[in-house]
Amino acid sequence: MFLQLVRETLARGRDRVRITIRALMEKTGLSKETVSHALRQLSSPSVDLVNVVDAGGAHRAGQYQVRWYTYEKRTFGTQPQRSRMKVRSLIDHSSIENRLLSLSAEDRALLEQSYLALQPTERRDVEDTVRDNLRTLGMVVTKPAFHQYVLYETMRRTMYHHIRRHYPNMFVFNPVSTS
């Protein structure tokens, strides 16, 4: 349940999601009672991973603030440390658009050449991979945004070592990865 809420929030690029219990039932395959119980558990003070902003109603979507960023990774035998960070700033700075804008003019030209140099089957494979990842995340994007995602995937496949050498943080968080 929590992973589904995280998917919904990351796909929308914000920390809140407005969704009905019925939609959660369809997406997770759980019963209504299980979904309601899971939401109560996740929003309890002991877990505190979901904040119920608006509980919704029988036919109205509820709004949930998902705090996937609340707990840091913990090492064995230590208590988790609470941390707060702004989700929007993390997502905005690491968006694919901003990453492609951070490339130098030479690297951007090299990326365009790498994309144009792909064989038609390779190009179709890259586009299908991006399309499948976006479909899995439930995202519908415009043609320019789709082209940027395709360029990012091309960069990841063909220029990985060059980009990693010159931009060490380029591949730290992949917003379109489904794995």
Percent range of helical residues: 40-55%
Question: Ends: how far apart?
Answer: 17 Å
Domain count, please report it: 2
Biggest sheet details: 3 strands, antiparallel
Q: What is the rounded Rg?
A: 19 Å
Mean pLDDT: 79
Number of separate helices? 9
Poorly predicted ranges: 84-91
- How many DSSP E strands? 3
**CATH top level of the largest domain?**
Mainly Alpha
Order of helices and strands: HEHHEEHHHHHH
Name the CATH architecture of the largest domain.
Orthogonal Bundle
The percent range for strand residues is 5-15%
Describe this protein's structure.
This protein is mainly alpha-helical and 179 residues long. 55% of the residues lie in helices and 8% in strands. It is built from 9 helices and 3 strands, in the order αβααββαααααα. A 3-stranded antiparallel beta sheet has the order 1-3-2. Helix 6 packs across helix 8 and helix 7 packs across helix 8.
Per-chain topology:
Layout: H1 2-12, E1 16-19, H2 21-28, H3 32-43, E2 50-54, E3 62-66, H4 87-93, H5 96-101, H6 105-117, H7 120-137, H8 143-158, H9 160-166
Antiparallel strand pairs: 1-3, 2-3
Helix pairs in contact: 6-8, 7-8
Quick take:
This protein has helices at 2-12, 21-28, 32-43, 87-93, 96-101, 105-117, 120-137, 143-158, 160-166, and strands at 16-19, 50-54, 62-66.
Keywords:
single chain, 179 residues, mainly alpha, Arc Repressor Mutant, subunit A, 2 domains
